[in-house]
């Protein structure tokens, strides 16, 4: 797909970008190259390809899920203004 100077000006206007007149031809060539690449990628048959979250098919090492601190809920709830059944009570903000 080939973009002309008028197309670049229109795109710049829609994107609210100010561009120099001397760079319009370069922008047109760059944007045309990008759109050609997208067309080329869209032409590839991906029917049997399983989607991947990462191109390297790696997994992240995770730390063990273990409790490292003691439960201090009782201490914190003693200093809270209002508590009921182990829950903090707050003023109603939505009717």
Word description of this protein:
- By secondary structure, this protein is mostly helical.
- The protein has a domain at about 5-40.
- The chain is built from three helices and two strands, in the order αααββ.
- Helix 1 packs across helix 2.
- The longest helix is centred in the middle third of the chain and has 19 residues, at about 25-40.
- The radius of gyration is 29 Å and the shape is elongated.
* Helical content class: 25-40%
E-strand count: 2
Characterize the largest beta sheet: strand count, sense, and whether it forms a barrel.
2 strands, antiparallel
Percent strand equals under 5%
Compressed to H and E, one letter per element, the order equals: HHHEE
Shape: elongated
Rg, Cα atoms, Å: 29 Å
Are there runs of 5+ residues with pLDDT below 50, and where?
none
Number of helices: 3
Spatial order of strands in the largest sheet? 1-2
Structural class: mainly alpha
Q: What is the averaged pLDDT score?
A: 91
> N-to-C terminal Cα separation, in Å?
55 Å
């Amino acid at each position: 797909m080939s973009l002309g100077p008028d197309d670049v000006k229109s795109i710049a206007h829609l994107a609210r970008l100010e561009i120099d007149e001397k760079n319009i031809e370069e922008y047109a060539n760059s944007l045309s190259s990008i759109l050609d690449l997208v067309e080329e990628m869209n032409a590839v048959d991906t029917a049997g390809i399983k989607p991947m979250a990462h191109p390297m098919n790696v997994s992240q090492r995770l730390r063990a899920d273990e409790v490292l601190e003691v439960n201090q809920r009782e201490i914190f709830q003693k200093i809270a203004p209002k508590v009921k059944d182990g829950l903090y009570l707050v003023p109603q903000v939505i009717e």
